[in-house]
Automatic annotation (TrEMBL):
It holds the Pfam family DUF4266. It comes from the Bacteria. This is DUF4266 domain-containing protein. It comes from Shewanella woodyi (strain ATCC 51908 / MS32). Residues 29-78 form the DUF4266 domain. The lineage of its organism: Bacteria, Pseudomonadati, Pseudomonadota, Gammaproteobacteria, Alteromonadales. Keywords: Signal. The keyword Signal applies. Residues 1-26 form the signal peptide.
Length: 78
């Protein structure tokens, strides 16, 4: 009796595992939906004022200019 219960429990866990793994398989971006990511408001850095303030904070703290858009740390080694 315990062996049968153990098999059912394993089967239930296996079914649940397969269901969870396959549940998101249909999610994703379809080719006809990719234009939504190209919109300007979907950009990660669409707030120009925030970017300017972050750059100012960065070069004020680090003593460098250019911030995140230029390589190098201001030491002249790059």
């Amino acid at each position: 009796m315990m062996a049968i219960c153990g098999k059912w429990v394993k089967a239930k866990f296996l079914f649940l595992f397969v269901l969870l793994c396959g549940g998101c398989s249909t999610l994703g971006v379809q080719p006809w939906e990719r234009d939504q990511f190209a919109r300007e408001d979907m950009a990660l850095d669409n707030e120009k004022l925030d970017l300017m303030l972050n750059d100012h904070i960065y070069f004020s703290k680090e003593g460098t200019s250019g911030g995140r858009t230029q390589g190098g740390g201001g030491c002249g080694c790059n």
